[in-house]
Amino acid sequence: MTTETHGRSFDELVRTMAVLRAPDGCPWDREQTHMTLRRHLVEEAYEAVAAIESGDDEELCDELGDVLLQVVFHAQIASEEGRFDIDDVAAAIVAKLERRHPHIFGDAVADTPEEVVTRWDAIKRTEKDRESVLDGIAPTLPALTYAEKISRRAVSVGFEWETVEDVWDKVDEEIGELKATAHGSAEAEDELGDLLFTVVNVGRKMGIDPEQALRGACAKFIRRFSAMERAAASLGRDLSDMGIDEQEALWGAAKEGERS
After folding, report:
1. Which of 95, 202, 215, 254 is surrounded by the fewest CB atoms within 10 Å?
2. Tell me, what's the pLDDT at 191?
3. Same domain for 168 and 182?
4. Residue 80 and residue 17 share a domain
């Protein structure tokens, strides 16, 4: 932390946000609402995740600040409307953490992460007075994360395959059903969804985060495809002018290059 930023407090961030939202403050900040800001909250969260994956502490510190700004921004808007303020936000999360960690702040016992998650979900259901264990999962989540959360909630009440081999059997079944559909049809879309949902459960059973796995696959594809483009350019060629056999050869070389 630099001398310039050292000592600047959370309270100062809150005060700065209030100045920006004041009648004589920033025109852009003053016109924002919860609805206009919602996409920024999502974007900043994704950028923070990217910083985590990069391993760059300076970048992560910066991106976490952007996420924190969004929280303070929303709290300031609510405060101006007399609904709640940042202290209410902080108090609510502290109270929630204490309620959902009775093995730390109470007499309950939870010795494994799995026991903690199970208890957390059970407490959450009683707090929200939900009719279904699937209530309250945000449909705006990325689809793979959404599917995994749905699956984990169902598993919490015992609706589960016994082994990962059982899930593989279901994958084979779903592949067969997808193959039997007409290309581009609504039925094909439905069957593809079933297949993807089942594959998410393979990941869950194997302890793999499907969202992270697919992000990793995308990053790997980008690396290898970029290597193909560079290799083609080194030959004085354009990738789009090459036949599939030549492209496959470059792809294979890119894969081999990563392994070595």
Report:
1. 95
2. 97
3. yes
4. yes
Nearest to 80 by CA among 39, 24, 23: 23
- Number of compact structural domains in the chain: 3
- Average pLDDT of span 203-232: 95
Kindly state whether residues 194 and 253 are assigned to the same domain: no
pLDDT tens across 168-209, in order?
999 999 999 999 999 999 999 999 999 999 999 999 999 999
Q: Judge whether residue 147 has pLDDT over 80.
A: yes
Place of tokens 């002018």: 241
Query: What's the pLDDT band for 6 if we cut at 50, 70, 90?
Result: low
Whether residues 21 and 55 share a domain: the answer is yes
Looking at the fold, whether 80 and 40 belong to one and the same domain comes out as yes
The DSSP string of the chain is --TTTTT--HHHHHHHHHHHHSTTS-HHHHH--HHHHHHHHHHHHHHHHHHHHHT-HHHHHHHHHHHHHHHHHHHHHHHHTTS--HHHHHHHHHHHHHHT-HHHHSS----SHHHHHHHHHHHHHHHHT-SSTTTT--TTS-HHHHHHHHHHHHHTTT---SSHHHHHHHHHHHHHHHHTSPTT-HHHHHHHHHHHHHHHHHHHHTT--HHHHHHHHHHHHHHHHHHHHHHHHHTT--GGGS-HHHHHHHHHHHHHHHH-
What global pTM score does this model have? 0.71
Question: What average pLDDT does range 208-222 have in this prediction?
Answer: 94
Domain match, 29 and 80 both: yes
Give yes or no for residue 3 having a pLDDT over 50: no
Tokens 């039925």 appear where? Answer: 187
For residue 37, the enclosing domain spans: 10-88
